[in-house]
Protein: UDP-glucose 6-dehydrogenase
Amino acid sequence: MHIGIIGTGYVGLVTGACFSEFGVSVTCVDRDEQKVKALKKGDIPFYEPGLEELVKRNVAEGRLNFSTKVKDAIESSLAIFIAVGTPPRGDGTADLSYVKEVSEEIARYMDDYKIIVTKSTVPVGTGKKIRKWIKEKMNGNVDFDIASNPEFLREGSAIGDFMRPDRVVIGAESPQAIAIMRDLYRPLYLIETPFVITNIETAELIKYSSNSFLAVKISFINEIANLCDLVGADVHIVARAMGLDKRIGPKFLHPGPGFGGSCFPKDTVALLHLAGERDAELGVVEAAVKANEKQRALMFSRLKEALGDVSGKKVGILGLSFKPNTNDIREAPSLYMIESLLNEGAKVQAYDPVATPDMKAVFPKVSYKKDAYETVKGVDALVLMTEWNQFRNLDLARIKSTMKSPNFFDLRNIYAPDKMKELGFNYYCVGRNSIK
Ligand code: UDX
Structure:
């Protein structure tokens, strides 16, 4: 089978590379010429473990091609995936102008039956809009179907998530489209991945509901963590015991400085809009969003409280990306922390294994260091924002000896409070009796 993928951002590229690994012939299109040129050589514009090898191998074996022309992805493709960006507008609603542009271009070149599949996270009702946009621009009367096939890829482990997903969701209108989509995902069918086959609107809503529910889980445990600090309880033990209840499950109950990334913040707000437009109330999701904003602010106010005043103080930040194994800093809690520190006159020095260039573009005034040890030299406080593996086993005695004051803010709870106190740190974490 031959498929086309429009948009070689995170979702499009991972999807294209993984389908080609399944033996499908894939043409990925992006209008950015430089990007396409680089991709042909196997240069990936972002950090994602395993992706470079996958792209290089499948390009070399001729199954994965890149082009700047939408036409190339349409001719001879049975399915065309739309994976372009749907950035949030000022009011939080998704901007569908790229999706519309691509739909109209697909219409121009469509000469035979095709399925147009949305991979981008799009508001409920977009499938219908795409059908309308295509019909309006189509020459003649070619039969086509629309499908929604949301992705559930986590940055940093996207390839594993694609190859061994918890489920595949397919929303489509006709039995023919469903059969083709199933065929495309045959390798997953063979390893008994559950398939959820439904209508387009349901598939579109599954994506928003899943991400919003996970965001609710995180905000819930963050609020419980803050309560733990006030009553002398340990949130890790609370979360573990909660997670042992199979109805709750252990995942996404890790407290921290708040969720970030390209999905949870954007999708929760978009879902609230969708509900608002229909006068529906989603109070739980609304509360999760508010709790997340408060969590980010709380981390800074705790630091401020510990330092008295941050003006003129030197603060070291370890980890800038919104989570480990990615260079993505979109909505990262570190952005809020650094901005607050700089606004209040602190000097900031920081290190991240891969996200430094991205952060430098946003905060050129921060002093970027080459490793964790350089970052802690002479600081009044150290704030660990992202749980990269290389921060899990730091030489703590060395760190303490070079800090000006031993204020250690472990916002990912990777160290043991007792041990840190024993070593002489003023150790602060999230929900493990750090206040009392
Ligand atoms: C998420 C979804 O998991 C994925 O299915 C979807 O398709 C895209 O959005 P991603 O944004 O890559 O993936 O990261 P994820 O691992 O889900 O983490 C999101 C944020 O929540 C991060 O900031 C992370 O630090 C935070 N988080 C996650 C917590 O604070 N606690 C947790 O227990 C889990």
About this structure: The pocket of uridine-5'-diphosphate-xylopyranose is lined by residues 151-155, 211, 214, 218, 252-254, 256, 259-261, 263-264, 322-323 (CB under 6 Å). The chain has a mean pLDDT of 95. DSSP finds 18 helices and 14 strands in the chain.
